[in-house]
């Protein structure tokens, strides 16, 4: 997040899940090996145990010792600097609704109404329903990796009161963009790390992308 900010980016995306003692922290995977020096499932560890892990050395020496942030710490970092935030609710299996509720409760408590509201997204409908139950005022987005038959994903997004759909970028075509825009939702994409893919999405008229390549794309483009 700090690196992205140095490149001029002003909105950030993260994945949030619950620790064993009920604290929201940031981690993409269900297990710890790939992006930390921990082992096994993260669901069974308390925040105190998670806080002892090194989540930076796997990347490079420059990030050695970097910890696993809490969602609250990141949210306050964004608020202090005027950044916007997209929180993907990525629950441990069986904790979908509880994690959604926790994300909604936290952000409703600390995010001022005067600031641009964070976007809450998830692949899990139950997580979005939980977020809606505790923070109905915060915008939601349904994440989609494979488009379901008969436009079932769009119907799910509408039933959940979503403002956007975030698709695997390869799923977007002109017809699908028109369909989603016609339903009054925004069209977003993940994870776009190539210039040709970004250009294709811009030409289709989609509304935004999620990228890892903060060094490749310009936020002013």
Structural descriptors:
eight-stranded mixed sheet; 8 helices; alpha/beta; about 15% strand; about 220 residues; about 35% helix
Low-confidence stretches: none
The biggest sheet, with number of strands, parallel, antiparallel or mixed sense and barrel status, is: 8 strands, mixed
Count of separate DSSP helical elements: 8
N-end to C-end Cα span = 19 Å
Characterise the protein shown here.
The protein has 8 helices and 8 strands, in the order αββααβαβαβαβαβαβ. The protein is α/β, with parallel strands linked by helices. Strands 2-1-3-4-5-6-7-8 form an 8-stranded mixed β-sheet. Helix 3 packs parallel to helix 4 (96-110) and helix 4 runs parallel beside helix 5 (125-134). It is globular, with a radius of gyration of 17 Å.
Summarize the structure in short.
The protein is of the alpha/beta class. Helices cover 33% and strands 17% of the residues.
Topology at a glance:
Elements: H1 2-6, E1 11-18, E2 24-26, H2 47-50, H3 71-81, E3 84-89, H4 96-110, E4 119-122, H5 125-134, E5 140-144, H6 152-159, E6 164-168, H7 174-182, E7 186-190, H8 195-204, E8 208-209
Parallel strand pairs: 1-3, 3-4, 4-5, 5-6, 6-7, 7-8
Antiparallel strand pairs: 1-2
